Amino acid sequence: MIWMGIESSCDETACAILQDDFPRPRILANELYSQIREHEIYGGVVPEIAARAHLEKIAVIVRSALQKANKTPKEIQAIAYTRGPGLMGPLLVGANFARGLARDLEIPAYGINHLEGHIAAAWLFAETLEAPFLTLTVSGGHTELVVENPGFRYELLGRTRDDAAGEAFDKCGKLLGLGYPAGPLIGKLGKTGNRKFHHFPRALKNRDNGDFSFSGLKTSVLRYVESNTPEFIRENIHDICASLEDAIVDTLVHKVIWALKKTGLRNLVVGGGVSANARLRERLSHYCEPRGIGLHFPSPPLSTDNGAMIAAAAIRRAREQALLQNSEIKPWMPLAD
Ligand code: KG4
Ligand code: ZN
Questions:
Q1: Where in the chain is the domain with CATH 3.30.420.40?
Q2: Which CATH number fits domain 2-120+302-319: 1.20.1250.20, 3.40.50.720, 3.30.420.40, 3.90.1150.10?
Q3: Which of 5, 31, 57, 299 is most buried, taking the most CB atoms under 10 A from its CB?
Q4: How far apart are CA 203 and CA 215, in angstroms?
Q5: pLDDT of 278-308, one tens digit each?
Q6: pLDDT digits over 184-207, tens only?
């Protein structure tokens, strides 16, 4: 069966074509337009501008995905699109396009939870993965520790009380004068830096719960920037980025270990933009490998938003005959509610 996946929840207009092969679907095309240019001067995503950019690009991206996959629209048998959570305007553009196209082609359209999409991205790379397993979703909008039980039943162990991990990377990066989104750049600059250069706070790290908080880190970076000269920041940017990355990654890893110990689960799935972070991958495999805990990541390009993960999430559900009617999914619902 040939699936189309459409993602438009934030600042990426994305479309993928997947063939449902076994054991895992094959990605025939995965096209994406990233709106970085539209938003970088504002240092963050502007919802209204994002919606307009999706409207402008969606048909182009869908056509390009069909071409890359060497498929005609008539060969597509089902469409999956991001139903939520995400920005309302951008979501509406994707949903309307997907449902209009599906109606025209007389095929079904399924609304998919974006966070379930991030989990499905890792599933694409996992040879075997049976629920229950622990999931960490770390993106620009979410930081959640959730157990996936059989039948797509989710159990929330903890989430951020304020900023998401990706948001922390981006906002701290902005304070340091780095572009948007700063997450990938902080990872790159930090690679050659000294992680012990400065100790940034790790909020809630030692609490016996799965909660995160990153807003204090932002304040701490602000104070740090204010109490040093711009030259000092520039000259030591590698060390500062390494220290900052270490604070965020250390907190995430600590909470994952807490959750693994609490649940006794033997498989961990990590998804969302921040799961592209090399240091996070290294730290988690350092913990999981010697303990025989299965660690599942998407390839780094599939960690950030894309259409393949949305189609993959629909395929996972279709295989378990658990696809929901559109009306049953509330778009702004977090995974575990
Ligand atoms: O999943 P995603 O593409 O969009 C949302 O659903 O939010 O995640 C985007 C976030 C941004 O905050 C970006 O800075 C962060 O993921 N990110 C990274 C890396 N690549 C992307 N953060 C740290 N290290 C990276 N390599
Ligand atoms: Zn995302």
A1: 2-120+302-319, 130-297
A2: 3.30.420.40
A3: 5
A4: 9
A5: 999 999 999 999 999 999 999 999 999 999 9
A6: 999 999 999 999 999 999 998 888
